[in-house]
Amino acid sequence: MLNPPDPLDGAILIDKPAGLTSHDVVDRVRRRFGVKKVGHCGTLDPMATGLLVLVLGRGTKLSDSLMAADKVYSGRIKFGESTDSFDADGELVASLPVPPLGIDALNESAASFVGDLMQTPPMVSAVKVKGVPLYKLARKGVEVAREPRLIHVYSLRFTAYQEPFGDFRLACTKGTYVRSIAHDLGQKLGCGAHLTALRRLDSGRFSVQDAMPLDELLALEPAALPTRVIPFLKLVAA
């Protein structure tokens, strides 16, 4: 007879703050509540905020299926400057004048990124080549060939533009590097660009509106943690 699920078997929705890696969040939750098995479903870069789905206990068995869900983001791109990481955490590598732009012009260019794309992971990423994360090679100034990956962008629309910043909303499949899209859009426009803000709004059926800020979660007493857990059986049944 199978043991009944533990109250901590399931998933927690966290609104990740900027400045922490996804692994940092996992580690803090594990240490605060003494949960041995904790994982996350979809990495957010340190600069990014928003929805991070954590799986606990038997919920970790569902990591792959939950991670496969489509994602929705909002963010901001700065045009005229390129960085080595394609986002604001990287080093400036080029600066060029920004051409006259507006919402219509940006959305016309953004339309070319909608659909199936073969996207090459950036060097500053956690993708491993021969067991070594690319970002570790990048720190040494080493650049290696990376295999392009098939992604799909459902929609990419700019909602505001105040030179040199454009605000956008993006819906895409798992594994999409939004900062690569920002970089590639800047290249297409001839001025360069990099991502300055990113927030994950949705992951599959989960929304950041239902997530708890990390600091509030960590302030809970351990006995209260099960009240924030989406039960394992509910995850399986959905």
Radius of gyration: 19 Å
**Whole-number average pLDDT?**
92
The tally of strands reads 15
- Any guess at the CATH architecture of the largest domain? 2-Layer Sandwich
CATH superfamily of the largest domain: Pseudouridine synthase
Structural class: alpha+beta
How many helices in DSSP terms? Answer: 7
The rough form would be described as: globular
The name CATH uses for the topology of the largest domain is Pseudouridine synthase
Low-confidence parts, pLDDT < 50 over ≥5 residues?
none
Secondary-structure element series? EHEEHEEEHEEEHEEHEEEHEH
Main CATH class of the largest domain: Alpha Beta
Helix content: 10-25%
**What portion of residues belong to β-strands?**
25-35%
Number of spatially distinct domains: 2
Short key terms for the protein model shown above:
globular; eleven-stranded mixed sheet; Pseudouridine synthase; 2 domains; two-stranded antiparallel ribbon; 23% helix; alpha+beta; single chain; 238 residues
